[in-house]
Specification:
The structure holds 2 protein chains of 2 kinds. By secondary structure, chain A is of the alpha+beta class. Chain A has one domain (5-151): STM4215-like. Chain A has 2 helices and 6 strands, in the order αβββαβββ. Chain A is globular. In chain B, 51% of the residues lie in helices and 9% in strands. Chain B has 6 helices and 2 strands, in the order αααββααα. Chain B has a two-stranded antiparallel sheet with strand order 1-2. In chain B, α1 (14-24) packs across α6 (102-113) and α2 crosses α5 (91-99). The radius of gyration of chain B is 21 Å and the shape is elongated. Chain B starts with 13 loop residues before the first helix and ends with a helix. Classes of the chains: A alpha+beta, B mainly alpha. Chain A binds chain B through residues 3, 42-44, 46, 50, 54, 56-61, 77, 79, 81, 85, 126, 128, 130, 132, 138, 140, and chain B through 76-77, 80-87, 89, 92-93, 95-97, 100.
Amino acid sequence: MPDNPYEVYEAAKWMQALFEADTGAGGLFQTGNPKINGAFMDLVPEEVKLPAVRYHVQGSHSVRGVGPGKASKIMVKIDWLVVVMREGHEVTPLLPIVMRLDTLLEGATGSTTLCNIDSCVNMEPYQILETDKSGVQVRHAGAIYRTIVIPK
Amino acid sequence: MPAAAGYFVVFNIIPEVIAAVEARSRSYPKQKADEVLKNARSKIHRVTGELQDTAYTQSVEHGKTAEIVFPSDHAAPVEYGTYKMSARPYLYPAMMEAEDDFFSGIFTEAVMRA
């Protein structure tokens, strides 16, 4: 269970909807020509072929006012690692998807029934090459994004 | 004839504050890094203990910067996750908890000393 679960799941719902709605020309899920095979919180299911996007909470921190309980929560900073993964060493084929993710997320705002997402900013880029025990290489590329979530 | 308007400097501690901030900024980063490391270690789910036990902090740039080093091969996969393993962040949350009071830790203490 993450810290601030209520805001985390609300912000995740918002982020997932943002990705899935990107069905226009050049979008992540462009109709008939998707760039990725899915976007998933935490883990990409085994049956899903790469490239796919995974995102998870890297850290969160709440700012509270006076008083007990949820009502005193003023805002929650939630930092997300958002990466696209593909099999292979090269990072270049991932760059258009990384750019698209950034276009969607940087400066985005929104709301769910329970929270407002007041800002979303790119904090720092991230990329890593993972090699598993069988020698298969998976490249991860993306960024850490900070969302400011205000409970309604 | 109206009285001349102006300011009277009664007490100027700015030079002392500057000197205190300078002195504090050479010791505080390492002190804070040690606190963050302790907090980060407490967030790691202990398996072999290698990830926790090999971590250390070091002071660089004459104390104005401190590094928290996790030399274990497991450090990045546990912190950021992999294709087949969920992340269990330990360092980033510890850093986030510390970032709010980092500057006040330098300045408040320095002003109090001055």
